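Homework-ish question, so no full write-ups if that breaks the rules, but can someone show me the predicted structure for this set?
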Amino acid sequence: GAVVSQHPSWVICKSGTSVKIECRSLDFQATTMFWYRQFPKQSLMLMATSNEGSKATYEQGVEKDKFLINHASLTLSTLTVTSAHPEDSSFYICSASQHLGQGAVEQYFGPGTRLTVT
Amino acid sequence: QKEVEQNSGPLSVPEGAIASLNCTYSDRGSQSFFWYRQYSGKSPELIMFIYSNGDKEDGRFTAQLNKASQYVSLLIRDSQPSDSATYLCAVSKAAGNKLTFGGGTRVLVKP
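A: Not a homework solution, just the prediction itself:
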């Protein structure tokens, strides 16, 4: 099956600093990637949809100037959390869409990045 | 009303029994339906997807979709302790479109 990687798998940063998370589709080209955030004991909440070569589409309530998304190639999307605060501590997960033919599309999830802001 | 609703559980089932999970959704325009399994601290992994009304079986798993009732379910036969996880129902309006997740149902399979 298709593989999506994320780097780093976990990161601890100080309040006020910025953190960049990478999401890569390793063996397929993903025209669309999605970024999710998951707080403890809660479900995944979509933050934004990222299309290669265009601006990301953010969900309501997600600050686009705080969560910068870049999708410069068909295999790489990055999420930068700017001026991180403790309330940004969460599990960030990306997914990438692959077209399987005959109209079928499947989303593959990366392993997630656990961010802790101190 | 939440867009996708699931009973949070925990759903406790004895080993070897059938676990039955339910999910309802509010948007009648939803076209694609997915079940994911998520272990604690890990990202979700796809178990099954279903697009058409009726049943779809894959190994020990059966997904059932009833678009008229806006209801999708997952049956896990011969439940194993390794099936203990949170099961997430997700829907989308079109293939490749963004997913909306339910809150998840925690399943505990007791030996």
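Now go work out the reasoning yourself. Hint: The mean pLDDT of chain A is 91.
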